[in-house]
């Protein structure tokens, strides 16, 4: 029998300290959950249904990052607190979130990034099904893709926003890393690569150099691509890491996107407007009659009020030829006086203005 070394003793000692700390953390997390239950009771007494409060969650997470002294990085600490809040909210009210499925899509990853894993994420086949389900009250919230840094806007989402009563109550920016998933161990045996058309486009250079001549097949989503390929030989899917777990498909190559900064932005849709968080974005839809100088008259009030326009996107209005809807994102909340002034000024110029929502800006705290 060898004697335990000084390091063995030190290891035992360190593990005992970890056990004691875990006990304290667990007790504190449950104490926090108990307070969240009290918050729910207060809201119920007040007849309120706003159990989920995006602006409050954004403030909590921002504060976590501000006071974080390490050694854990801000992102890791935020992910932990994100999950604690998610579990607390589930005690207050179990939440259903509709998203563009099937399981394993990037939209599902966006749901968990934004809400944590304690929500019931419900996959839907099409973007308009998500709008309908949230409008009908079958899901509390919906998550849909709106824009990709390489491929541009998801026009279907913008078009649905025009006629919907839903309110944008959050945004999620997700770094999109594509992986090649296949049962094949050898890339040379792959005859077909399946993915969403946008993902095939985002990996074009990689595919050209590593899989020249291999047939590329576009399907409705990357989750769907993984689902199909799971039962096949000689095929590969391009999809998120999560799809590898869901469909039990090994990762043959990682991070095959041509642009390492490839990011997709998603919108969180709900039925209630969100109060100020202090770091907000406001999205509006503006329809104008095409007259000379009209676009300038629309944008000048923002410059005068010192409001930053983050994005402006035009779409044919479908009312008549050369008539456009503009989707404008500006920094700030509709209750902030400068933003209110801009909205009032646009109101007097535009044929129609619809406030799509004010919501906390996405904080890039969580890594994929
Ligand atoms: O502050 C609230 O209103 C809560 O319900 C508490 C809490 C939390 O756990 O911190 C939970 C859910 C909300 O989305 C925001 C915060």
Automatic annotation (TrEMBL):
Instruction: Please provide the record's keywords in A-Z order.
Output: Amino-acid biosynthesis, Aromatic amino acid biosynthesis, Cytoplasm, Isomerase, Lyase, Multifunctional enzyme, Phenylalanine biosynthesis
Q: Give the UniProt entry's GO cellular component terms.
A: cytoplasm
Superkingdom assignment: Bacteria
Pathway annotation: Metabolic intermediate biosynthesis; prephenate biosynthesis; prephenate from chorismate: step 1/1; Amino-acid biosynthesis; L-phenylalanine biosynthesis; phenylpyruvate from prephenate: step 1/1
Check the record and name the InterPro entries matching this protein: ACT-like_dom_sf, ACT_dom, Chor_mutase/pphenate_deHydtase, Chorismate_II_sf, CM_dom_sf, CM_II_prokaryot, G/b/e-P-prot_chorismate_mutase, Preph_deHydtase
Report what the protein is called: Bifunctional chorismate mutase/prephenate dehydratase
- What job does this protein perform? Catalyzes the Claisen rearrangement of chorismate to prephenate and the decarboxylation/dehydration of prephenate to phenylpyruvate.
> Which reactions appear under catalytic activity for this entry?
chorismate = prephenate; prephenate + H(+) = 3-phenylpyruvate + CO2 + H2O
Q: Which organism is it from?
A: Salinisphaera japonica YTM-1
Instruction: Domain (Chorismate mutase): give its ranges.
Output: 5-96
Cite the EC number: 4.2.1.51, 5.4.99.5
Q: Where in the cell is it found?
A: Cytoplasm
Cytoplasm is among the record's keywords = yes
What's an example Gene Ontology biological process for this entry? L-phenylalanine biosynthetic process
Q: Which residues form the Prephenate dehydratase domain?
A: 96-271
Q: Where is this site: Essential for prephenate dehydratase activity?
A: 264
Q: Domain (ACT): give its ranges.
A: 283-360
GO terms, molecular function: chorismate mutase activity; prephenate dehydratase activity
């Amino acid at each position: 029998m060898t004697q335990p070394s000084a390091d063995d003793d030190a290891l035992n000692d360190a593990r005992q300290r970890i056990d004691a700390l875990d006990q304290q953390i667990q007790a504190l997390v449950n104490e926090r959950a108990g307070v969240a239950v009290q918050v729910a009771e207060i809201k119920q007494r007040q007849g309120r249904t706003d159990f989920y409060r995006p602006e409050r969650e954004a403030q909590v997470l921002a504060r976590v990052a501000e006071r974080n002294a390490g050694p854990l990085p801000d992102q890791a600490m935020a992910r932990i607190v994100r999950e604690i809040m998610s579990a607390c909210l589930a005690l207050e009210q179990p939440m259903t979130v509709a998203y563009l499925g099937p399981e394993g899509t990037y939209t599902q990853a966006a749901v968990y990034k934004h809400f944590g894993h304690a929500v019931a994420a419900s996959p839907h086949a099409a973007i308009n099904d998500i709008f309908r389900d949230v409008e009908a009250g079958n899901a509390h919230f919906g998550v849909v893709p709106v824009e990709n840094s390489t491929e541009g806007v998801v026009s279907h989402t913008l078009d649905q926003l025009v006629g919907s009563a839903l309110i944008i109550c959050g945004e999620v920016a997700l770094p999109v890393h594509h992986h090649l998933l296949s049962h094949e161990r050898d890339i040379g045996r792959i005859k077909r690569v399946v993915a969403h058309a946008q993902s095939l486009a985002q990996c074009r250079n990689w595919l050209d150099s590593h899989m020249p001549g291999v047939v590329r097949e576009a399907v409705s989503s990357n989750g769907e691509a993984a689902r199909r390929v799971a039962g096949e030989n000689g095929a590969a899917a391009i999809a998120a890491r999560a799809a590898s777990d869901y469909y039990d498909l090994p990762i043959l190559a990682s991070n095959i996107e041509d642009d390492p900064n490839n990011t997709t932005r998603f919108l969180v849709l709900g039925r209630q407007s969100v109060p100020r968080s202090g770091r907000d974005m406001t999205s509006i839809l503006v329809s104008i009659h095409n007259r000379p100088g009209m676009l300038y008259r629309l944008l000048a009030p923002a410059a005068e009020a010192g409001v930053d326009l983050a994005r402006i996107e035009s779409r044919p209005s479908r009312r008549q030829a050369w008539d456009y809807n503009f989707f404008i994102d500006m920094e700030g909340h509709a209750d902030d006086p400068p933003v209110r002034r801009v909205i009032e000024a646009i109101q007097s110029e535009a044929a129609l203005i619809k406030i799509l929502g004010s919501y906390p800006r996405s904080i890039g705290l969580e890594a994929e």
